[in-house]
Design a protein that fits this description.
Number of helices: 18
Structural class: mainly alpha
Strand content: under 5%
Order of helices and strands: HHHHHHHHHHHHHHHHHH
Largest sheet: none
Oligomer: single chain
Shape: globular
Helix content: over 70%
Length: 411
């Protein structure tokens, strides 16, 4: 992430406007994902691919994102944070057009690779800027920003559901959405912080292994995203196959889980500011673990849906806090954020297939037993997010100031 050469160069009002601007950027980013997800069946039919081939193609967004994320720091270093985000976000919104144009498996994989690469780079850039705004405001905002991403995804998926119900051509649908979101994104980017590298600052390497701190923080994010991916993709199947619920009730469980996460993220900043990142994640891990146990022991749909709700509530703020911790964990925030993002993207990629494979070998109940164990990992690993805990950082800074005041001789 680039740094402002004059740390006091932004006024309070400018930073506050930047907060709302970056929230709008997160919403736009999420709306692209929601718009794409609802039209995957249309894209599959248009490309003429089987379910197995579609599964292969859907791995390419994560591959593209993982390979491209380290480049975000280089782009920001060269062009400045605002210009970099403007270009990367526009690339992401316009990439929405590509998958619906693909006529076969090869072109679909290529389109999804570009789609994922642009998603990953813009993701790193906007999270790095979000951390910068949070630092300047001196209060937690990352959970709320990710909540706005979820709101954007819900808006995009709602519009996509309407388009699919009308049997609209996804090529036209995605072209219109892409142009609208590109315009909204460019407007939002005008107000984000315009940070630039110091003249003598070395550019970050184009490709580098994530720092050790990012790997440790990313492990906590991995547990949360695995539980999220498993619940989103398999909660409806769990209710239908394990508890013999109706299709409507099973689908409602997924919607309820997504809404719980969105609401918890929007409200999460106040909780983090009051209790700190470590205590919040540790408590969330307890709630998620209890939710997982409720799911695997549920005798009926009501208890299982309550369990999925607790899972969503417990893991909601983990990823935003992981990004915040990564952004404060070392001298190169963008590299650390890219490392955490790569790990979480990988978790989201393997979670659905891992749950399915384990369920085939054993049962879905056993699969969600594993999810419960990973949720408990949040309780054990919450301490690594201390770098993102502003309460702890502030307390340590105050203690250090007091110590120096005692040690230094008075004039």
């Amino acid at each position: 992430m680039t740094t402002d050469s004059t740390a006091t160069g932004f006024g309070t009002q400018e930073v506050r406007r930047a907060r709302y601007a970056i929230a709008a950027v997160f919403t736009v980013h999420g709306a692209v994902t929601g718009s794409f997800a609802t039209r995957v069946p249309w894209i599959q039919d248009h490309a003429g691919v089987s379910a197995g081939q579609l599964g292969i193609a859907l791995a390419f967004p994560a591959i593209g994102a993982s390979l491209a994320m380290p480049l975000a720091g280089t782009v920001s270093h060269r062009f400045g944070a605002r210009t970099a985000l403007r270009g990367l976000l526009a690339l992401w919104t316009l990439a929405l057009i590509l998958p619906a144009l693909a006529p076969n498996l090869v072109t679909l994989c290529a389109a999804l690779f570009v789609y994922g690469a642009s998603a990953g780079m813009s993701d790193v850039a906007m999270n790095a800027l979000g951390v910068e705004v949070e630092n300047r405001l001196d209060k937690s905002i990352m959970s709320g920003l990710h909540g706005m991403w979820s709101v954007g995804a819900l808006i995009g998926s709602a519009a996509g559901t309407v388009a699919a119900h009308m049997e609209a051509d996804a090529r036209l649908h995605h072209m219109i959405v892409a142009l609208v979101l590109t315009a909204l994104g460019l407007i939002a980017c005008q107000r984000v912080l315009d940070l630039h590298s110091e003249p003598d600052q070395e550019p970050p390497p184009r490709f580098a292994l994530p720092p050790k701190s990012a790997l440790i923080i990313g492990a906590v994010g991995f547990c949360a995203v695995f539980a999220e991916g498993a619940s989103l993709d398999w909660s409806a199947v769990y209710l239908r196959d394990v508890l013999d619920s109706s299709a409507g009730l099973a689908a409602a469980s997924t919607t309820a889980f997504a809404l719980t996460m969105a609401i918890a993220r929007i409200a999460g900043d106040r909780i983090v500011d009051r209790f700190g990142a470590v205590r919040t994640v540790r408590t969330g891990g307890v709630l998620a673990t209890v939710g997982g146990v409720m799911v695997v022991t549920a005798p009926n749909a009501a208890m299982a849906m309550s369990g999925f709700g607790l899972l969503g509530l417990g893991i909601a703020v983990v990823v935003p806090l992981a990004f915040a911790a990564a952004g404060r964990s070392g001298p190169n925030p963008s590299q650390a954020i890219a490392g955490v993002a790569t790990i979480t993207y990988t978790s989201g990629l393997i979670a659905p297939s891992a749950i399915g494979s384990l369920a085939e070998a054993t049962s879905l109940v056993v699969s969600f037993g594993v999810v419960s164990v990973l949720a408990f990992g949040l309780v054990l690993g919450a301490g690594v997010l201390r770098a993102g805990d502003r309460k702890a950082v502030t307390a340590a800074s105050d203690a250090g100031t007091a110590s120096r005041a005692v040690a230094e001789p008075r004039p």
